[in-house]
Write a structure and sequence with these properties.
There is one protein chain. By secondary structure, the chain is of the alpha+beta class. The protein has three domains: about 100 residues; about 80 residues, ATP-grasp fold, A domain (Dna Ligase, domain 1, 2-Layer Sandwich); about 150 residues, ATP-grasp fold, B domain (D-amino Acid Aminotransferase, Chain A, domain 1, 2-Layer Sandwich). The protein has twelve helices and 14 strands. The strands form three sheets. Strands 9, 10, 11, 12, 13 and 14 form a six-stranded antiparallel beta sheet that branches.
Length: about 375
């Protein structure tokens, strides 16, 4: 790996700054932990860096100011882009990528294409289908009339309902697993109301066949057109608390973020789930199907792929790939920490790979 020249470059970490007036959503956008982690990373890499809060209404000015600051330091800027919003709820996202690209700047993470195709689960699912990636059967519900049409389709219940556009499991609860059309209608109607002022109906609702079985996640750094130099880290399994029924073993918002508005905590304040290295006999298959999903969406930068295994048939299904996935060395904040631990890799080494990939993208 090329060592980034500390004399030549300065890093600007672009982080979304969002005010929601809701404690739960504000907690989701709290980057206190990330600031500490990046301070450690860039200290180890001997790189000058700045944390930059970005809003949808000021990103051009903020980025231009960063460019001016780099010039004053006589360095070239690299933008470590953490913005992951849908832009419908005032959260900065693809506009930042497009502006960075337009200005011919060095930046990490997704291209605008990869970002947009994975922001919409509907677009992503279609890409999986076109590429032959194994994924659960799904239906796109844009209106209540679409829910009525489900009764005429070959639907296998239970289904899990997810906003087509959402992050961090916002809008997903244990009530989203439905067993018949009546339950589906009631829960879709509830989801269309939004979550504490957060719009969950930007691109409708995805009704997906619920896969009963083990859940895994895989971290990839690379570009879809060059698998040989990509890093596909060791997959890990999310081992959900044994007290949970099978249909509650998934990442619901309340339990993931320990909010408990509508759901209960685990007995004895145990963890919702623990991480374990994926079984040896599954590692290669999990890495392979994750890469297929990444390539299907023309992935650029890095991603986290979520996969479930049908425990009856043993078949693997990709749930989604996440462009601009949260990255951290602490597994209590993102699964990336657990993946890096299973791979005997440091967070600093992963960030360095991401930065080098950004430099190579401009060079090519």
């Amino acid at each position: 790996m090329n060592v980034i020249d500390a004399k030549q470059y300065v890093i600007f970490v672009l982080a979304p700054w969002v005010q929601t007036n809701n404690d739960n959503l504000d907690y989701y956008y709290d980057f206190s932990q990330s600031k500490l982690e990046y301070n450690k990373v860039f200290s180890e890499l001997s790189l000058a860096w700045f944390w930059v809060d970005v809003q949808l209404n000021n990103y051009q000015v903020v980025i231009d100011d960063a460019i001016d600051k780099a010039k004053q330091l006589n360095k070239s800027p690299i933008f470590l882009n953490l913005c992951d919003g849908d832009e419908q709820n005032n959260t900065p996202g693809v506009s930042i990528i497009k502006y960075l690209h337009q200005q011919n700047l060095v930046f990490t993470g997704a291209s605008s294409y990869f970002y947009e195709i994975t922001t919409s689960k509907a677009l992503m699912k279609k890409a999986f289908e076109n590429y032959g990636v194994s994924s659960p059967k799904w239906f796109h519900l844009k209106t209540m009339d679409d829910v009525e049409m489900l009764a005429k389709c070959n639907v296998s219940f239970p289904l899990i309902l997810k906003p087509s556009v959402s992050g961090g499991s916002i809008g997903v609860s244990v009530k989203n697993v439905v067993h018949n059309i009546i339950e589906c209608k009631l829960q879709v109607a509830e989801m269309l109301k939004g979550y504490n002022g957060w719009n969950l109906n930007i691109d409708g609702i995805i009704a997906e066949e619920f896969i009963v079985g083990d859940e895994f996640t895989v971290f990839i750094i690379g570009n879809y057109d060059n698998e040989q130099v990509a890093t596909i880290y060791t997959p890990v399994q999310r081992v959900f608390h044994p007290s949970l029924p099978e249909e509650e073993k998934f990442l619901s918002f309340d339990r993931l973020w320990e909010i408990y508005e509508n759901e209960t905590a685990m007995p004895n304040n145990d963890n919702f789930y623990e991480y374990a290295k994926a079984p040896a006999e599954l590692i290669e298959s999990l890495q392979e199907i994750s890469w297929q999903a990444f390539a299907a969406c023309k992935g650029v930068g890095y991603t986290r792929a979520d996969i479930r295994k049908n425990n009856t048939t043993g078949k693997l299904f990709v749930l989604e790939v996440n462009a601009q996935c949260g990255i951290s060395e602490d597994e209590n904040y993102t699964s990336i920490g657990a993946i890096l631990k299973a791979s005997n890799a440091s967070f600093t080494s992963a960030v360095e790979k991401i930065l080098n990939l950004a430099l190579q993208r401009v060079a090519n």
